[in-house]
Design brief:
Layout lengths: L1 E6 L5 H12 L3 E6 L3 E4 L6 E4 L3 E2 L5 E4 L6 H13 L3 E2 L3 H8 L1 H10 L7 E2 L7 H7 L5 E5 L8 E4 L2 H13 L4 E5 L7 E8 L2 E9 L14 E4 L4 H13 L4 E9 L2 E8 L5 H6 L4 H12 L13
Parallel strand pairs: 1-2, 1-6, 6-7
Antiparallel strand pairs: 3-4, 4-5, 8-11, 9-10, 9-11, 12-13, 12-15, 13-14, 15-16
Helix pairs in contact: 1-9, 2-3
Length: 303
């Protein structure tokens, strides 16, 4: 098969591993830089063009790995590949849903999934009410479109929370205000879901003096055995957002698991670094299964 990896950085560990995994299975895998793709909209003959005048019309599958800053254009490209009849590992609408933290949380709680108490308001006049709504300080303030721990801030006092929320509001930034779950103790679970299965789970522990457990923020990872309830939360979260591949982040609250967020382009470095499993290979296997790919049999020549 010919597979395109639609992303921004060919040197990123996750992107290199996915390309290697596809090539090891005998597929032709090409890196497609998001910024170098452009679209021809045509009711009869839609096309995807690539810098240099090439038309991308011979791909069997696309693996979108879209960074947050490229969400709008990256999902437009993914949607166009879909219109051309090309299989996409995660589809554009699922990626879009997962990137809007507020919309994603609304969908998740509507499916009965447990989350930390969260507030959202448009006006700075509601700051005091927002703080009370989530149980007061300390609390977490999150930008709606942050990732890898960026745009997530801990306000330890009511005064700090007021200043922080009002500062974000003055910049016209959309934020969520969320209760701080102290018993999580700087740890969270990253459950890697592929095609309706949790293929691996790790516990991420924040660096000293840091509350965010993200690997990109200096956190460390170790393998962890999740409970049946945690597994159920992870699978339902990925299913709710219709993601074939998802990183589901969960914290252990005093009354059970609480869902933090669902990532549509989860990183592989942390999880493959502590696991013996070929996570990238499992992603390629989904494409093979969905496209009913049969590996060519080796021809044995007579001596």
């Amino acid at each position: 098969m010919k597979i395109g990896l639609l992303a921004s950085n060919p040197d990123l560990y996750s992107n290199r591993r996915i390309m290697e995994a596809g090539q090891e299975r005998g597929h032709e895998v090409e890196f497609l830089n998001i910024k170098d793709c452009y679209i021809k909209l045509d009711g009869k003959n839609p096309e995807m063009h690539y810098r240099g005048g090439r038309i991308l019309n011979d791909f069997d599958a696309i693996i979108p790995r879209i960074r947050p800053s490229a969400t709008f254009y990256g999902t437009a490209l993914t949607r166009h590949f879909e219109a051309m009849g090309v299989y996409t590992l995660n589809n554009a609408s699922s990626i879009t849903r997962s990137r809007d933290k507020l919309y994603a949380l609304q969908l998740l709680i509507n499916n009965g999934l447990p989350i930390p108490t969260t507030g959202f308001a448009n006006s700075p006049l509601d700051t005091d009410e927002l703080i009370k709504m989530v149980g007061g300080a300390p609390l977490i303030v999150k930008l709606l479109e942050g990732t890898q721990g960026k745009g997530v801030v801990l306000a330890e006092t009511t005064k700090a929370a007021e200043s922080l929320i009002n500062a974000f509001k003055s910049l016209k930034a959309n934020i969520l205000v969320q209760e701080f779950v102290k018993e999580a103790n700087g740890k969270d679970l990253r459950c890697f879901v592929v095609n309706g299965r949790v293929v691996e789970s790790i516990m991420r522990t924040a660096a000293p003096g840091e509350f965010r457990a993200n690997i990109h923020m200096g956190g460390t990872a170790s393998l962890v055995k999740i409970t049946p309830e945690e597994k159920k939360v992870a699978l339902l979260a990925a299913k709710t957002l219709n993601l074939k591949v998802a990183g589901v982040d969960i914290i252990r609250g005093q009354n059970g698991p609480l869902l933090l967020e669902v990532n549509s382009s989860p990183g592989l470095e942390g999880i493959e670094g502590v696991s013996s499993k070929d996570i990238a290979g499992k992603m390629i296997e989904v494409i093979e299964k969905d496209l009913k790919y049969k590996k060519p049999e080796k021809v044995v020549e007579n001596a």
